[in-house]
Design goal:
Low-confidence stretches: 1-32, 654-700, 727-869, 871-886
Number of strands: 47
Number of helices: 11
Bound molecules: 2-acetamido-2-deoxy-beta-D-glucopyranose
Distance between the termini: 36 Å
Strand content: 25-35%
Oligomer: single chain
Structural class: alpha+beta
Radius of gyration: 31 Å
Amino acid sequence: MEQISVQPLLLVLLVLMLLGRLSQPWAFPFSPSLDLDVTPRTTVFFKGVLGSSHFSGSSQNYSTLLLEEEAGLLYVGGRGTLYALNTSNISTPANLTIDWEASPEQKKQCLNKGRDNKTECYNHVRFLQRYNETHIYTCGTNAFRPLCAYIDAERFKFSSGIEEGRDRCPYDPAKGFTGLLIDGEMFTASQYEFRSSPDIRRNFPFPTLRTEEAPTRWLLEADFVGSVLLKESVNSSIGDDDKIYFFFTERSQEQIAYPSQTKVSRVARVCKNDWGGQRTLQRKWTTFLKARMVCSVPEYELHLNVLRDVFVLQGRDAQSSIFYGIFGLEWKNIKASAICQYTFSDVQKVFQGPYMEVQDSKWREYTGKVPHPRPGSCITDVHRSQGINSSRDLPDNVLTFARRHPLMANQIHPIGMRPLMFKRSVNYVKMAVHKELALDGNIYTVLFLGTDDGWLHRAVDVDGDMHIIEELQMFDKPQPVESMVISPVQRSIYVGSHSGVVQVPMSACQRYSSCYDCVFARDPFCAWDGRVCVEISSRSQRSNLTQDITRGIRGCKEKSGNVVHRRRSVMSGDDVLLQCELRSNLATPRWTLNGKELQGYGLNSGYRIGTDGLLIIGARVQQSGSYRCFAVENAVSVLVYLYTVTVHTDPFFVVEPTATTYPPTASSPGVSTTGGPTEPPSPSPPPPPARAGAEFQTYRHMEAVYISLVAVLGGLCLVLSVVLLYVSFCTRRPAHSRKFSQQGLQVLGGSERKRSSHFELTTISSHCNGRPGRRSISVPTFADIGDGFLQIVPGEGQMSPAKTPPPAPPLPMPPPLPNMDYVNGLSATLPSVLRKMNGNSYVLLRQADPEGMSPLYHSFTEELNRILEQRKHTGQLDLQPDESSI
Ligand SMILES: *[C@@H]1O[C@H](CO)[C@@H](O)[C@H](O)[C@H]1NC(C)=O
Ligand SMILES: *[C@@H]1O[C@H](CO)[C@@H](O)[C@H](O)[C@H]1NC(C)=O
Ligand SMILES: *[C@@H]1O[C@H](CO)[C@@H](O)[C@H](O)[C@H]1NC(C)=O
Ligand SMILES: *[C@@H]1O[C@H](CO)[C@@H](O)[C@H](O)[C@H]1NC(C)=O
Ligand SMILES: *[C@@H]1O[C@H](CO)[C@@H](O)[C@H](O)[C@H]1NC(C)=O
Ligand SMILES: *[C@@H]1O[C@H](CO)[C@@H](O)[C@H](O)[C@H]1NC(C)=O
C-alpha cells in the first residue's frame, strides 16, 4: 500500500508547489475554440513506419539538405562529408560522396580555442545551394575557420580551389544561419565571427552590403531561422520589385507588454536590387526594414516569442504566398509549440504602415513626415522615370531616415489572430507544408512537423481546426530533426538528423486496416476502395472511393472493424483482463455484456475499464457471457473485440493454458510492456485460482484498505487546499486569488473537462513523457499546471523604464528546473516514459469514493500484484493457471 499512497501525495504536493508559483490563473476549462493539446490520432513507432528509406554515411549531423527535383537528387551536407542521393530511394547504394574534413592542424587550433573536439571541431556543412547550371556552392564551418567551395554537379567533385568563407558562413555549427544564392548573388544572415554581432549580408558580388550598427543598431543578438525570395516582379507593371525576407528572433529593443519576455520574433526584408547608398549608408542596405511577428493565444495571454522555423508556401504569385512559423517560448525547459500562419498582404501592410523611432531613448511610433521615395521600397520603373536609377541615387534625406527607422510600428498578426495550432509538451523544430486535393474536391493544407526528439507529426487543417492524423517515430534514438525538405514529385518528406536522413512517403494508406480506420483518419491522401485503404493519387477511377475529411464518419457500410473473437474460461473469483486494443488515440472503449451496456463501474460492480481493456475483478458465475468491446470515435461505435467468457466454479474443469489474463508482473508496470500491439501478454507468473469465499474476503479487505486510503488522501487534499487558499489570499490580489483557489480545488479534486463516469482508467502512455492524452487526469492535470507556467507572463506592471528590458526580470524567471522536470520527464515519479503503451499498464485515475475528492492513482498491474501478494499471505497461492482458451 506504501506505493499507492506515495504517488498521489507527491502529486498533490507538486501541484501545490506549482500553483504557488503561478502569478495568474490558468483558465479552466479550456475554451473549445483552440484545442491546446491536439492529440495525434495514431502513434506509429519506428518499426511500424511504412515505406521509409534510410540513409546514413560515415558522418553525423545531416544538417543541410538541397533538393533538386528535376535531377532527382537530394544533396546532403553532413559533418565532414557531402552526399548526392537518389530522391526516389535514398537508400539506393552507389551514392556519390565528397569527403571534406577539417585538417588536423585546424582541428588542433579549434581544440586550443577551448572547443569540443567531439562535436564542434569538425567541418559542419552549413550552406549548399545551386550556383549556376553546372555548379553548386557550399560552405562549411571547418573547425571554426569557415571555407567555401564550388562543386561540379555532374561529377560531384570540387571544381576549383577552396575559398575563405569567414564572411559568409558562421564559424559555429550551432549558430543560427540562413542563406540564399540567387542569380549569382549570395545573401546570408548569421553571426559570422566570435566577436561580431549578427548581420544580414549580401556577400557577393561587389559591393558587399551589411546592416547598420550606429546610431541605431538594426539587429540585436538576432538568431536566424530562414529566408525566402519573393519575386514580386513577376507580371509586375513596374519592373523589379523582388524582395528577400529573413526570419529570426532577437532581443527586443522596444517596450513590449510582457516584461517577462526578452525576445521577439521578426521578419526583416531587403530589396534584391539594393546597391547601398552613395555617401550615407555606403555598403549598407538602404531598404532594410523589420517588423514583429506575433503568435499569441489571446485568451490565455500566452505569447510565443521565439521563432524556430518558417515555411513559405508560395502560390501562383508572390502576393498569394502564406508564411508559416513554428513558435515556442524562450525558456528552453518548457516544451510548447504554436503554428501561426500569415498572409503576404498582412506582412506587406505592416511594411507600408508607420515606422518606429527612438525618442528620449524609447521606441515610439513616428508620426512625422515620411520622405519620398518611401524608405524601404525597391527601385522600380516608377523611380527610374523620376531619375532614380539605383539605390545610390536616393536622396540623402531618404537614406538618413532609413538609417534611423529600421523598425515598423505595427505588428504582423496571424490569420484569425490566433495560432493555427497549439501543442503543449512538444517542441516542433522544423516544418513543411503541402496542399493536397481530396476526394471532395477541396484542397487541404497538410503540415509536416518535425520534433526535437525525432518524431514527425502529420496534421491537416479542416476548416481552421487542426487534426493530427498521426505521429511517426523517424529515428530509433531520440534526436532533434535538423533539416527537412518536401518533394511533391516524389511525394516524400526528407528529414535529416544527427544520425542520418530518412525519407518517408507523405502518406501510407495501407496502414489503415479497415474502412473505419481509413475514414476516421481523415487523411486527405487516403480513401477506402471497398477492400483496402489506398492512395487516392494512385487511382484514376475514383467513383468507388470513400473519404470523409470534414467529419470522418461517412461512407463505411460494415458495422465493425476487424473483429477479434476470443474465448475465456476462468475460475470463479479470478481476475480477468479482457484486452481491447484501440488503434486510435481518439477512440474510447465501450463495453457491453450480452448486449447490455456495462455501466456504473463502482468499486462493487466488479469491473474496471481501461483504455486498453476491461478488468473483471473476482469473477462471478453470473458474469459469464458475451463481452463486446466497441471503439467509439467521432460518435460512431465500431465493434473490435468479442469475448465469450465462461466462469466456472469447478477447479478441475480448467483446460490447458494458452494465454493468461494477467499482464506481466514486472515490478514497474509499463517498462515491461514495450511490445507491439498484437503481442500477447507474457504468461508469467500464472495467478492462482482461489476459493471464492476467501477470495471475496480478500477483496473486501482490499476494498476497505482502499477506502481508508482514499479517506486519508481526501483529508490531506482538504488540508492542503486550505493551505493553498491561505497562501493565495495572502500573497495575491484578491481578484486573482479567487480564481486561483478555484483552480487549485479543481485540480485537487481532479476535475477535468470531459469527465463523466465515476472513475476512469487510462494507460500511463497517454500522458507520460509529457504527452498528455485523452481522458487522463493524474498527469495531465499536472501538465496543465506545467502549462500554467507558460503563463507566468504577467500582463501588467513590472515594466522597466530602462531603455531595454532587463534580461531577466525577477518575477517572471523561467520556472525552476525541478518542477519542470515533472512536466517534461515524468520518469521521476512514474515508472515508465513511454509514449503509448500498447498493453497492460493502467492507471486508475479517479473513482467515486466516500469523500468524492481524492483521485487514486495506480496501475492494474500493481493492483493485480497486490491481490496476488495478499493471496500468498493468506496461503491461497496455487500454481494452477486460472484461465485458458477453449
Ligand atoms: C529503398 O532501397 C532499399 C535498398 O535498395 C530497399 O531495401 C528499400 O526497401 C527501398 N525503399 C523503398 C521505399 O522502396
Ligand atoms: C534513382 O533510382 C531510380 C530507380 O532505382 C532510377 O531509375 C533513377 O535513374 C535513379 N536516379 C538517379 C538520378 O540516379
Ligand atoms: C579530443 O581531445 C582529447 C584531449 O585533448 C583527446 O584525448 C581525444 O582523443 C580527442 N578526441 C577526438 C575525437 O579527436
Ligand atoms: C558556373 O560557375 C563556375 C564557378 O565560377 C564556373 O567555373 C562555370 O564555368 C560556371 N558555369 C556556367 C555554365 O556558367
Ligand atoms: C538614370 O539613367 C538615365 C538613362 O540611362 C540617365 O539619363 C540618367 O542621367 C540617370 N540618372 C542618374 C541620377 O544617374
Ligand atoms: C552533431 O551530432 C551529435 C550527436 O551525434 C550531437 O551531439 C551534436 O550536438 C550535433 N551537432 C550539431 C551542431 O547539431
